């Protein structure tokens, strides 16, 4: 149980570091036009998410984990993972809409 808790914290920390690294190294600038500005808006929207949905989005879409794998790694049911991912995508769409970016870029 203790090892599982430690593993979950490490996984969450790794996901947070992935987001941070993407922001520092790969994030396009918002002043650019075209796909780069869309990328910048997506990264900014992800950074604005609360920690839990941000970690789940990172694990699913940047680390390529399945909902089932995320559930196992985080001690959640697969149904709850899918629910939280759905809510996170909805938040991202709203944030992108507020930024004037089409949410069609999201899965």
Would you kindly provide a written description of the structure presented here, covering whatever features stand out?
The chain is mainly alpha-helical and 107 residues long. Helices cover 75% and strands 0% of the residues. The chain is built from five helices and no strands. The chain has helices at 2-26, 35-48, 51-62, 67-74, 78-98. Helix 2 crosses helix 5, helix 3 packs across helix 5 and helix 4 packs across helix 5. The longest helix is centred in the N-terminal third of the chain and has 25 residues, at 2-26. It is elongated, with a radius of gyration of 14 Å.
Gyration radius, rounded: 14 Å
Number of contiguous helices: 5
What profile does the largest beta sheet have?
none
Q: Helix-strand pattern, N to C?
A: HHHHH
Q: Low-confidence parts lasting 5 or more residues at pLDDT below 50? A: 23-33
Straight-line distance between termini: 34 Å
- From the spread of the alpha carbons, the general shape counts as elongated
Oligomer: single chain
Mean pLDDT: 76
Helix percentage: over 70%
What portion of the residues fall into strands of 2 or more residues? under 5%
Label the structural class: mainly alpha
Strand runs, count: 0
């Amino acid at each position: 149980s203790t090892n599982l808790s430690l593993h979950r914290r490490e996984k969450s920390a790794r996901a947070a570091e992935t987001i941070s690294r993407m922001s520092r190294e790969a994030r396009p600038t918002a002043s650019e036009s075209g796909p780069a500005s869309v990328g910048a808006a997506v990264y900014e929207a992800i950074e604005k998410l609360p920690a839990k949905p941000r970690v789940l989005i990172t694990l699913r879409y940047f680390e390529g984990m399945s909902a089932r794998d995320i559930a196992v790694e985080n001690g959640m049911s697969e149904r709850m993972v899918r629910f939280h991912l759905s809510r996170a995508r909805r938040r991202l769409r709203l944030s992108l809409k507020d930024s004037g970016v089409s949410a069609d870029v999201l899965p």
